[in-house]
Amino acid sequence: MSADPKVFLMGEEVGEYQGAYKISNRAPGEVGPDKVLDTPITEVGLIS
């Protein structure tokens, strides 16, 4: 993620809450908070 400026992580609770089982807990510190984006937790707001 840090090598490619086009790659980022986006999902429910991956930023502030660090994802399920803390899977993304180091991501904001390693690649920067602008590459780890939280999405809304809502069934209506999800797009496949």
Automatic annotation (TrEMBL):
* EC number, UniProt record: 1.2.4.1
What would you give as a GO molecular function for this chain, any one?
pyruvate dehydrogenase (acetyl-transferring) activity
Family matches, as InterPro entries:
PDHB_mito-type, THDP-binding
GO annotations under biological process? pyruvate decarboxylation to acetyl-CoA
Q: Does the keyword DNA damage apply?
A: no
- Could you name the domain of life of the organism this protein comes from? Eukaryota
User: Which cofactors, by name?
Assistant: thiamine diphosphate
Catalytic activity as recorded in UniProt: N(6)-[(R)-lipoyl]-L-lysyl-[protein] + pyruvate + H(+) = N(6)-[(R)-S(8)-acetyldihydrolipoyl]-L-lysyl-[protein] + CO2
What the entry lists under PANTHER family is as follows: DEHYDROGENASE RELATED (PTHR11624), PYRUVATE DEHYDROGENASE E1 COMPONENT SUBUNIT BETA, MITOCHONDRIAL (PTHR11624:SF96)
State what this protein does.
The pyruvate dehydrogenase complex catalyzes the overall conversion of pyruvate to acetyl-CoA and CO2.
- What's the name of the protein? Pyruvate dehydrogenase E1 component subunit beta
